[in-house]
Each structure stands twice: as structure tokens, then as C-alpha cells.
Write a structure and sequence with these properties.
This protein has 87 residues and is mainly alpha-helical. It has one domain. Helices cover 70% and strands 0% of the residues. The chain is built from 3 helices and no strands. It is rod-shaped and about 100 Å long. It comes from Hibiscus syriacus (Rose of Sharon).
Length: 87
């Protein structure tokens, strides 16, 4: 009673899915690693550009908050001076 193996060449399920021996898997894993550097650099550049934009927007926003706070405090000081000068 010999089993008919649908994977061919005597390989079994364990041979296909065993990760302890990467040489047993079908080839091509080294080729993927060497070609991925360009894509990584491209995405790093995009992320860097995005962070620069975020930094610029945050800086502009903080300047607006600082200016608004300053004018608000000045308004409060003016209102306080007007009420204390009447006496």
C-alpha cells in the first residue's frame, strides 16, 4: 500500500512547511532580499518628506497658538487696567 503523494518527488507536508531548514524551501528568497533595498529607500524618502511637512505644519500651528495666546492675555490685561483705573 503505497500512498499517492500529490506534492510529487516524495516531498511531504512537513518538507514544504518546515521553516527550520530554509535550504529545503524552493529558491528565490535570496533574490528577494537583494532587490528590496531600492523600495526601502524610496519609502524612507516618502516618510521623511511627510515628516518634514508635518513638522512645518506643526510649527506654523504653534506660532498661531502663541500669537493667539499673547493677544488674549493682552486683552485680559487691558480689561483689567480699565476696571482698576475707574476707581
Amino acid at each position: 500500500m503505497e500512498r499517492n503523494n500529490s506534492y510529487g518527488h516524495g516531498s511531504s507536508w512537513v518538507d514544504q512547511w518546515d521553516t527550520s531548514n530554509p535550504a529545503a524551501a524552493t529558491g528565490g528568497s535570496d533574490e528577494k532580499k537583494s532587490g528590496g533595498g531600492g523600495a526601502t529607500a524610496k519609502y524612507k524618502q516618502k516618510v521623511g518628506d511627510g515628516l518634514e511637512k508635518t513638522k512645518s505644519v506643526a510649527s506654523t500651528g504653534m506660532k498661531k497658538v502663541k500669537q493667539g495666546t499673547s493677544s488674549g492675555i493682552q486683552w485680559i490685561k487691558d480689561k483689567y487696567r480699565k476696571t482698576t483705573h475707574k476707581n
